[in-house]
Specification:
The structure holds two protein chains of two kinds.
Chain A lengths: L6 H4 L4 H14 L7 H12 L5 H13 L4 H41 L6 H29 L3 H15 L5 H13 L5
Chain B lengths: L3 H14 L8 H11 L5 H13 L4 H44 L3 H29 L3 H16 L6 H15 L1
Helix pairs in contact in B: 1-2, 1-4, 3-4, 6-7
Classes of the chains: A mainly alpha, B mainly alpha.
Chain lengths: 186, 175
C-alpha cells in the first residue's frame, strides 16, 4: 500500500499531545465502539493531520478484525503508528481513563442514590431504551451480513445453543463461526 | 470481597470475546457477571448498562470499572479494567504481522464474515435476554419499540443518547 508522507514522518509528535488527544476522544464518545471512529477521524485526520484518510480507514478495518473494544484497538494502532510503544501506551491510557474516572466517580458517590424510587424509575426507562438500541444494532448488523436463508438458520442455531441449551456465549460464537465459514463464498 | 484473581480472569474472558465491541459484549458480560458468579443481579446489570450508555467510553470498560469497584473497591476496578483491555494488546502484538499479510486472502475474508455472523446471533440473544429482564408490561414494550423505530428512522439526525434520556424521563413520569 502506498503511504502518503505526513506530519508524523517529518516532525516528532509530542507524547503529551497523543495522550491529550486520545483523552479528549475518550471523553467525547458515548457508547464507545464504532461510534468513536468519526470523532477520532475528525481529531486525527482533519484537525491535526497526523494521518491520511486511507491510513485511518485501513486502521479502523484492522481494529474491527481483532477481538477487544474497537476504540482501544484503534488507539493502540494509531498510537503505535505515531510514536511506537511509547505512543501506544499513552494513547490506550488516554482513551481508557475518561471512562474509568467517570464510572469510578459514579460508583463511589452516586451509588447510594440508586435505590431512590425516582432514580430507579429513571434508570429503568433508560434500560428499556437500551433494549431498543440492541434491537437496532442487530438490525444494522443483520442487514450487512445476511445474504441467504442459510445465514438466518445458522444464527437461529446460535441463539438456540445459548438460550435453550445455556451454553457459554464464546462456545456459541465459535460454533456459529465454524458453520458460517462454509456458507460464505470466498 | 471477591478474589481479585477471579475478577481478573472473568474480565480477561470478556476482553477476549468482545469481538466487534460495544453492545456485542453484553451477552458475554451478562454470562460472566450475572449467570456464572452472581456478582450483580440482572436488574442491576440492566441499570449499569443504561449508565454505561450515558457515560463516555466503551461498554466493556465501563462495566469492568463498575463491577470491579462494587466487588473489591478501587483495586478491583483497576484489575478489572486492565483485564478487559489486555487481550486487545496481546492479540495485536502477536497477530498484527500475520493479519496484515493475510488481509486480502479469501479464507480470511470468510473467517471474518462468519465470525460476524456469530456475533449477530450473540446480539440477537442479548435482545431476547435483556428484553425479558427489563420489559414487564405493554407500556415497557411500547417504549422499547418506539426507541427502536426512532433509531431506525432518525439514524443520522438523532443521537442515541437523547433517546435513552427521553426514555428515562418517561420512566420517571409514568412508572
Amino acid at each position: 500500500m502506498q503511504k502518503i508522507e505526513l506530519n508524523h514522518k517529518e516532525k516528532n509528535i509530542l507524547l503529551i499531545d497523543i495522550f491529550l488527544t486520545f483523552f479528549k476522544v475518550g471523553l467525547l464518545t458515548l457508547g464507545g465502539g464504532l461510534a468513536m471512529s468519526p470523532v477520532m477521524r475528525y481529531e486525527l485526520v482533519l484537525k491535526r493531520k497526523w494521518l491520511s484518510e486511507s491510513e485511518f480507514s485501513s486502521t479502523v478495518a484492522l481494529a474491527t478484525i481483532v477481538p477487544g473494544s474497537i476504540s482501544v484497538n484503534i488507539a493502540y494502532l494509531l498510537g503505535k503508528k505515531l510514536r511506537g510503544w511509547k505512543g501506544l501506551t499513552l494513547s490506550v491510557l488516554g482513551v481508557v481513563l475518561p471512562s474509568f474516572i467517570t464510572i469510578l466517580l459514579i460508583a463511589s458517590f452516586l451509588l447510594p442514590f440508586f435505590h431512590y424510587p425516582k432514580v430507579v424509575n429513571f434508570l429503568r426507562g433508560c434500560a428499556i431504551a437500551v433494549v431498543g438500541q440492541l434491537a437496532f444494532a442487530s438490525l444494522i448488523f443483520g442487514k450487512r451480513l445476511i445474504r441467504r436463508i442459510s445465514h438466518i438458520v445458522i444464527c437461529a442455531v446460535g441463539i438456540l445453543m445459548m438460550g435453550v441449551l445455556k451454553l457459554h456465549p464464546i462456545f456459541g460464537l465459535v460454533v456459529v463461526s465454524l458453520i458460517g465459514y462454509w456458507f460464505y463464498p470466498g | 470481597m471477591e478474589s481479585l484473581f477471579e475478577i481478573f480472569i472473568s474480565f480477561l474472558i470478556i476482553g477476549i470475546g468482545a469481538y466487534g465491541g460495544g453492545l456485542v459484549t453484553i451477552p458475554l458480560i451478562q454470562h460472566e457477571i450475572v449467570v456464572k458468579y452472581n456478582w450483580l443481579t440482572l436488574r442491576e446489570m440492566s441499570e449499569l448498562l443504561a449508565i454505561a450508555q450515558m457515560t463516555p467510553g466503551p461498554i466493556s470498560i465501563n462495566t469492568a470499572t463498575f463491577t470491579g469497584y462494587r466487588l473489591a473497591g478501587v483495586a478491583g476496578s483497576i484489575i478489572a479494567t486492565a483485564a478487559v483491555v489486555l487481550p486487545s494488546i496481546i492479540f495485536f502484538t502477536l497477530l498484527t504481522p500475520i493479519i496484515t499479510q493475510f488481509k486480502e486472502n479469501s479464507h480470511f475474508y470468510r473467517i471474518n464474515k462468519s465470525l460476524q455472523l456469530g456475533v449477530l446471533s450473540l446480539i440477537l440473544f442479548a435482545v431476547w435476554s435483556y428484553g425479558s429482564a427489563v420489559i414487564r408490561g405493554y407500556l415497557d414494550f411500547g417504549i422499547a419499540t418506539a426507541a427502536f423505530l426512532l433509531l431506525v428512522n432518525c439514524e443520522k439526525k438523532l443521537h442515541p443518547l437523547i433517546i435513552i434520556l427521553v426514555c428515562g424521563i418517561i420512566g420517571l413520569i409514568f412508572f
